[in-house]
Amino acid sequence: MDEVQTIEAAVLSFYRGGSEQQKETHKWLQQVQNSPQAWSFCWDLMQLNKSSEIQFFGAITLNSKLRSDWAEVPKEAHHELKQKLLETIVLFGNGPKIVLNRLCISLGLFIVHMLRHPTVIEEVTNMFLQEQLGNLSKVTQIEILMAVLEGIPEEVKNIRTQIPRAVVCEELNRNAEFVMQTVVTYLNEKLSHSAVEPHDMNGLINAAKCTGTWVAHGNVHLNDREGMIQTLLKAVHYCYWKEPKDDGCLMPEENELAETALKSLANIISSYATQNAKYSFTVINYMKLFLDVLVPILDAEYKENNDNENLALMIYALFISTLECFSSAIFAGIVTDSEEVSKVYTRTVDMLIKCTDKPGTYPVDESCSTYAMEFWYMLQEEVLSMDNSEHKKRCLEAIKPVYAHVVKVLVRKSQLPTESSLHKWNDDDLEAFRCYRQDIGDTLLSCHDVLNDLMLDVLSEALDESIMYLSYDPQSTESWTLLEATIHAFCSIAQKIEYTEHQQIVKLLKVLNEIPYEKYNDKLFGMALETVGAYSEWIGDNPKYLPSAITLLVKGLNSTKASQATLGLKDLTSECQKEVIPYALPLLDACRTALQEGHLKNAEMIRLMYTVGNILSVISYENIILYLDAMVSPCFEELQAHVQNNDLSEPTKARVVLRLEMISKLFSSLNIRKPTEGDMDKGLVGMGAHKLPFPPGTPVPGAPVQPILLILEKTMGLLKNLCTLWIHDETVIDTLCKALQQALTNLMDDIKPLLTEMCCLVLSILNTNCVVSAADIAGNFILMFYKDQDCRQLMVQLFTAIMDYNFNQMQLNLGKLSRIADLIETFYAFNTRISKKIPICYSEVQVDCMKLVDYATKCIMLPETGPMKKSVAFITMFVKESTNHPVMMNVILAQGENIVRSTFLCIGGTALRTQVEIFADIFLALNFRYPAEFIQWMKLLEIPNFPTAFVSATDKEQFMRKVIKERVNKRLVQDHVRKFAALCRNIVEYENK
């Protein structure tokens, strides 16, 4: 009794204590639950005079024991356990509900364990049906019975039972029809009355759930499910139409029953999804039933802010689920001689057009319209995937008018909220609408696949209508939303529009330049700018429209929508780099003015520098130097001032990072040897007005010096000083390294004149603050120049610095490596590249490879995914390359057993179960390169209780044999590892039968 009181006190402490206390108490309570004594004390906790928290703990303890520790119950105690369960159910038959629900689950678990007895389900069912449970009312007994039956198939998935899986499945299939017949009979009996008593609703809800959980069992054909389907539809129909509702809203119980019935209907249909062709006729029949019973409900709810929106959602979900499972059967009605199939298809399309066009604005007035998006993708996919034939042509022609209509609906539905309606919107609504507009954009792409050039005609017509709507009331400031939505539609399909000079696009660009944006909300201007950017590729093919595009985007630089303007200019100057040459200097002047005026946000300034780099790359060398001085010098002058002031304040840091990011973005796009549009085909490279027959990136004899190199030569001293000043600030150093990385990426071999200085700068960083990007750029230097004898010594220094710094950090954090997870991830990503590209490094440089691999085996056991995966990749690559290099081979021969041991520990429980398959790579590499040694290392599994106590010697032997057999088939080894991991963790993996 003292023990029970201690447990009760702990439970109350858990529910009523603080978070730290809860953590400790929870751990102790779990240990108590796992003890064999739990079978006894759980009943003492489930007494009516206890608090509900204690009763609930008793119930979940019983649950836990039945689910995981059935082997502790002697066979002779089974009957007594059943009686106790039933008595306790009677005790809590009238509540608390939370305890009764757990007891129902427990009885279901007991039944699963007892399935060897062929009549156990019938016996328990009849006991409830014949009201043999004490003084509980018939209604309560039926409610409990339905809850118990409903849970049985679900519990089979999670339970550890001594009955073989095949026997369990066989018994479920054998009992399925008995259970279904019991449930459907009960549902029909209750629903046949003119009115269902309120106290029967819980029983009906549980019964409706039951049909959904048992439907996968019984080996019954879909056409034999018609009675059940009609019964569930009857439940939905009853709940909605049973009586007029003053406020139009279903009662909670009615709503739950209707929604549960709809979920079960969806489960029934999806259970037969793999047998698509077999049930074509049956599905058409069922779809007709759904349309007859459910569409009238949808019609009644076809309004804004309806009270039963969730019920409408569930109905649409059922239709979409049925279409996903049996699309070909229903889409056969597009063109068919069967009037019945044609009618079902037509009614379905009509219903989903109405769904797409649901009154109101998503998501504040309605939430259904998003459901239909998937259908429009499915329909076009079905038709376009048909073999090219007359039938496909006919289907395509048949659906075109539908998609043309849908496009107009989608344009209307994608209108932004007006200022006067925004009071109804919260942040979540705005985010949901943003995603909804993205879905509309994706759906419009599907529409274009069907309509092709006709799509532009439809949108052009919509453009005319939106402009006309704007002119109806010229004084209105809120009539812009339809025009903005139409422009958004054009923007959404830009990627589909080919180079042809489509007059509809010409008209669009003309309209975009003529709109008096100052009269309307700035979102309209923002969408216009975004659209011009989206059509950059088309403008590149039709360059006569470039001036108007530039004019609009430059105008945007001085507006509140500068973000879209800078994005548009970035795209335009990337796609039309050659074509922009005649307009380059005025455009550079506009960029310089915008940068100088100071109204741009940081991200906009950074992005604009990319545009500047694109333009500078194609103008004359003299002008490059001129504009570099005017546009880049301010960045370095400000950095110089900060260095001279020795200012380390936060505002200064923000400015330093901004200027470095601007420089970095310029470095990423400024390259006078970068090929321009069309030159790649000729093997030519653009360099201002010059065309030279050298491949991209090749130093050209006698050619002008790359502008980036000029910048670096002049500013290397400043960058060194900046690095010294901010050496302990990771953000600044990381940004500086990224700028240097961009320079290296563009200059390639051209960087050689500054290689020594840049490497010394990177070395100083590696020796003090080895940020991720410093290791990245050092790795790139090594990969590019290690084989160059003139640079070898410098590369060795870089390599040694990286290794020493990381070894030192791992030694300092030994036992708590998670603290430096990012560093480890970068370090082993770097070493994987070295192992793959220049493994000779490990032989020629004085590096402790034994330590390198030893740390990697520790890092594969980290909980963080990044360093774990990168360490596994390194070990795998190091093993693969090691046989060609004695130094590396000696390390693997010495560390092989340690690698295998750590890998087993990861598979056994250290790593997340969802990620264990990655360790198959290590096994495959070792088995392929060191087959004889691998067999010996695998014998670690002969150690008792290794890697865990749950896996038997037989299972371990089978696993060894299977893995050793496979040296190439990665998928098979992954499968073996996944299953072995489940055994190690005492998780039974059930395969679908």
Automatic annotation (TrEMBL):
Under the subunit heading, UniProt states: Interacts with UBC9, RAN, RBM8A, eIF-1A and PAX6.
Keywords, ordered alphabetically: Nucleus, Repeat, Transport
Give the primary localization class.
nucleus
A molecular function (GO) term = small GTPase binding
Instruction: Give the protein name, as stated in the record.
Output: Importin-13
| UniProt similarity note | Belongs to the importin beta family.
Show the SMART domains listed in the entry: IBN_N (SM00913)
Gene Ontology biological-process annotations: protein import into nucleus
Localisation: Nucleus
Keyword Metal-binding in the entry? The reply is no
Q: What domain of life does the UniProt record list for this protein's source?
A: Eukaryota
Q: Which PROSITE patterns match?
A: IMPORTIN_B_NT
InterPro entries linked to this entry:
ARM-like, ARM-type_fold, Exportin-1/Importin-b-like, Importin-beta_N, Importin_beta-like_NTR, Importin_rep_1, Importin_rep_3
The record's GO CC annotations read: cytoplasm; nucleus
Q: Which residues form the Importin N-terminal domain?
A: 25-91
